[in-house]
Fold this sequence. Notes:
Blueprint: E1 7-15, H1 19-26, H2 29-35, E2 41-45, E3 54-60, E4 63-69, E5 73-75, E6 79-86, E7 91-103, E8 106-117, H3 120-150, H4 168-181, H5 184-196, H6 207-214, H7 218-230, E9 234-241, E10 248-251, E11 260-263, E12 268-271, E13 278-284, E14 307-312, E15 319-325, E16 330-334, E17 339-350, E18 352-355, E19 365-368, E20 371-377, E21 383-388, H8 390-393, H9 398-402, H10 405-410, E22 422-434, H11 437-444, H12 446-466, E23 469-475, E24 478-483, H13 486-498, H14 500-507, E25 515-529, E26 532-536, H15 538-548, E27 555-558, H16 559-562, H17 565-574, E28 579-584, E29 591-597
Parallel strand pairs: 17-19, 18-20, 25-27
Antiparallel strand pairs: 1-8, 2-3, 3-4, 4-6, 5-6, 5-14, 6-7, 7-8, 9-10, 9-13, 11-12, 14-21, 15-20, 16-17, 16-21, 22-24, 22-25, 23-24, 25-26, 27-29, 28-29
Helix pairs in contact: 1-3, 4-5, 4-7, 6-7, 11-12, 12-13, 13-17
Amino acid sequence: MKVLPPVPGRAELLFDCPAEALWPLISNTNRLNRALGLPDLSVKGSGAARDYSLRVNLRKMGLGLTWREEPFEWVEGRYFTLVRIFEGGPLARWDATFTLTPEGRGCRLQVKSDFTPRSAIAGALIRYVVLPKSLRDLRLLLRRFEASVKADGQLDAFPRRTKTPTNEQTLESRAAALRAAAEPKTAARLIELLRDGHDDELTRMRPFELADRWGEDRLETLKAFLHAVKAGLLDLAWEISCRNCASSGSYEKLEKLTASSHCPSCDLAFGVDLADNVELRFSVQPAVRKAVTALFCAGSPAHTPFAAAQLSLDPIAPRSLNMTLGSESYIVRNLAERSTVRLRPKSDGASRFEFGAEGETEVQELGFKPGLVTLRFAPGSALVRVEKESWKDKGAKASVVTALQDFRRLFSSEVLSPGVVIGIRNIAMMFTDLKDSTALYEKIGDATAYSVVRSHFDYLFEIVARHDGAVVKTIGDAVMAVFDKGSDAMAAALEIQERMAELNEKLAPRPPVVIKLGLHQGAAIAINQNAVLDYFGTTVNVAARVQNESRGADIVMTESLRLDPGVASLLAARSLAVEPFKINLKGLSEAFQLWRFFPKASI
């Protein structure tokens, strides 16, 4: 069929609300299309490496359309564009652009929608039927967005058809267990979300992201989500994200994870690291609510919430991004070339940057002055993103989750497959032991000594859990515990030694105990050891040896922990003098710089 000139559709609206408030609603084209009553789509990748377009199929009332969807382009808060190239049928192409421009205290939205028909009949149908109706429906929805923003979210921006009904009886019966186990305010927030949230808000939920939105503690929110899984309100899944494009694969069980993964879009094999690219997400349990997971827009900016901008380069001409960057760090990523440049905010930084054909610069970190910044890219065939580095920190990384006592207690069966070894970039280790425990057994007898050991275990377990750590195992009278943060490990160690008089008072008239304690942090490997998630490697060995250098009632730590900013703050707040000493640790070739200090008793 002959391709005819495009049929233009235009709309322009003024809104009495700022562009940044409308952007999250307008750019969520997946939910927007569903609200407009459009059918769901079947989507798959192009099948070619480093090609980020999508092949999309739509079927409605026996009619089908298939098209190639090019990656959306956008700058957050300003505009997005889309291009669809159809495989046969009445349409050859569709180009659309939504542009938001600040105007006074409000903003102006311009919509350009150009359909390229293959026949005069298709052109007439688009011009006189499709475009007038679609623009009319869009205007009505956009005015609803405006009303919702002005009502501070009290009016739902989207119509009810974007939500599936909740099984109230099941929700309430299962919510009782969550209310009994979790912090009341957080539990209430989660139950409200399950009842009233949009379907796309109830799949692949990120508890840290929600905690920030609710103004709640991140780890307490994560614990509430874990309890909600046990209560039957949520399902959990482990997601591995590609180091290059951040697309993810999902696994219902930790045992399904392997030490490496492969991204077909990037044609990239990469290692799996529990502290880097494995994240725990949650979805509503279908018995509570059958949330629709279908796609209504394949390339929506909402599918890539970590990207502040996305741009397809031109093979012939250079392209530029003009955008406002805030006081946070960003990553400029060239997906095809797998290159990254980090932009750090600096008061005397530059406002203009040039990127070469391969997406690289001479340095991998640049300083920018917060505000309007121009990024200019040489000609090439690539997809470029400007990503907000803070987004990654809002994920509940597997290293954080598996270092929580609540997780190990509630999900003891969640372990790696036997023989699978997965890295962890950084984790803090604590080893403790009872001083002169052999003499204790000889002095008071096995039964009494064992009760002392059990009481001291309870004491340690409680403190470790309170500081968001987890006890991995006990070895005789010794304890091995892990923490995601060095500062949490130090806070737990301080409390353990500062409150020893309290423990010994409870043990009286039995003999008092003295605890030896060592700390270290670094890289480790996670494995399945006797059906328990365990840790091995040099970091573990060093931490165990460091504990051997403890004299009792003190804390011995390595240089890596002492240099941790959070640890330094804790020690400074207590005005504790730290004594350095260097020693060769048993079984390790190099000499280690260690630091010893004696916490002050709190009672």
